[in-house]
Amino acid sequence: MCEGRHADLYMDERGRLFGTSVVHEAFWFAGANINEALTAMLAGQRWRMMLLRDQHSVTAYGRIITRDDTDVLTAETLPA
Prior knowledge:
By secondary structure, this protein is mostly beta strands. It has one helix at residues 34-42, and strands at residues 7-11, 17-21, 27-31, 48-50, 57-60, 63-66. It is globular. It starts with 6 loop residues before the first strand and ends in a 14-residue tail after the last strand. The relative contact order is 0.17.
């Protein structure tokens, strides 16, 4: 294991990037492609949190994010 590692990035078959925390239950949409994800990361933009089907909330960016939050993504609201 890489020392200091706190997240993993995954790419789906469409080229979209997703991240998951290895510290706590958090999952996010990093970008529609690698360029979008890396540009956002280098610009210091926050990635959009996602809730899994059985999750009601997640703590990220110093606050509790719920399904009612306009910034949260779900499988149904995920960009194509």
